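Re: your question from the hallway

Yes, I did run it. Sequences:
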Amino acid sequence: MRSRIPGILGIAYPILQGGMIWVSDAGLAAAVSEAGGLGVIGAGGMPPETVEEEINKARRLTSKPFGVNIPILSPFAEGVFETSARLGVPVLTTSAGNPMTFTARAKEAGMKVVHVVSNVRMARKAQDAGVDVIVAEGYEAGGHNGFDELTTMALVPQVVDAVEVPVVAAGGIADARGMVAAFALGAEGVQLGTRFLASTDSPAHPRYKELILSAGDCATVITGRAFGPVRVLRNKLAEMILQAEREGMPPEKVQEMIGSGRSIKACLEGDLDEGSFMSGQVAGMIRELKSAREIIQELVEGYRRIAAEL
Amino acid sequence: MRSRIPGILGIAYPILQGGMIWVSDAGLAAAVSEAGGLGVIGAGGMPPETVEEEINKARRLTSKPFGVNIPILSPFAEGVFETSARLGVPVLTTSAGNPMTFTARAKEAGMKVVHVVSNVRMARKAQDAGVDVIVAEGYEAGGHNGFDELTTMALVPQVVDAVEVPVVAAGGIADARGMVAAFALGAEGVQLGTRFLASTDSPAHPRYKELILSAGDCATVITGRAFGPVRVLRNKLAEMILQAEREGMPPEKVQEMIGSGRSIKACLEGDLDEGSFMSGQVAGMIRELKSAREIIQELVEGYRRIAAEL
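Structure:
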């Protein structure tokens, strides 16, 4: 695999685990890093004290590099950044906000910076901000999504053509086929979320994992298209939001109806009706739980086999 | 390239040109077929007499196999099918409707049948109907689009896993990078639309081609999401439709506002404000007009180079 990513991030394979609120805790992140990828603690929704505990826990579980993901618009962003920098977290991954916010300070603190984008303009801006790696995330990805709806196939080559820094593809990747496709498009790495969620190392509620395993190809929908698109598995909550949107309910009202705590209901409580079960379109490809190590080994071995067959 | 498609369709390379209303005429189809791909006359909107003329013209321009594309729900579908079968058109490509409608009769007439799908259920149905090749078309594709919004990265592997007949990937492919990616995902061929539209062999209005060449990554939008999604370049007409949709205008009213003849306005008249300029998300990757022959040669040569580098 031709890739600058392992050298930049200090990992064996250019495979990143996406930051997932309440799902990518220290345990999952450490398991991914131990297997040679980049595990990432998803700090979205966590106050700095909790993130500090998770970082310390990850340190006890692995001596390999790992990251902390900060959604820049999160109310805890500044505190989580300061905590991560103070504790010497090797990699900061940022998303959902201006890459200028933390990049310079993170690099001064010796961190590598990975920033997630969903169009070419954002990629150029991230490069200008000095990030080390750009994640180009397509419309098929689970969770928070860009407004421009560029898919991985269309987005990755256009970002690769626009910037010099290495590009990681995210969205639509659950096995080695997707990884080879990403590299063919010009990416130098892949980021997987849903696949690691449905792993034996993730703390997601068993009913959440079961939903992924039993999902078909059309299981996900976009809610909040007008104000903040999120890809989730279709359930009672998702149908309620879509119905309200179809009926023209104003975005503020929809957000009020959604309220807070929907991710906790999904990830920790497994509340099938009331939880927000974020997932990528690849849910339909995931048929069994595997460990993070198996997932990464299958990606690496599958990559070699498929690339040789092309 | 490992592919059953050349053997089935009698072509040199597993590269299909997508049927495009008012754009893929006999001239473009013959140019693609002459270059070793499968050229396809897009019969959408054409009465059988016009299609007969186009078929005869294509015959004069090439002795190689070509296809006729019939959107099954078109009012002319039955007449166009009968004409194509009577004239011994080698390949029928069908889309937007039930694959049972024409497949058996087409095969009795000695035609090969290619059917376009946008989810796994439709792919199984197409296989059951007896089609020879399935085109799995992702959300990033231009023109008429599925309701399920599955992207090429997520759709192709799931369709490949679900059926035995060979699968062609469509949507998001404009160069050899996309072609190699498609094969990595398990496809045995590719279908390109927008790339062939922006070719010196296409009859699209020069202003239409210029729009593609100057498009950025975020140039396209989906209109008619609730009743009949179509991916088009953002212009005055598209903005008007999106605005009406945001304001909750009923689908029938929106369709009434769109009226008919919008494709003719785009393709033949180059009316930048009032035309419906269908295009895939790859418009942003297309920087110059090329001949169909150059496009196909670059795909084939690029495939070998990129596959060797992986």
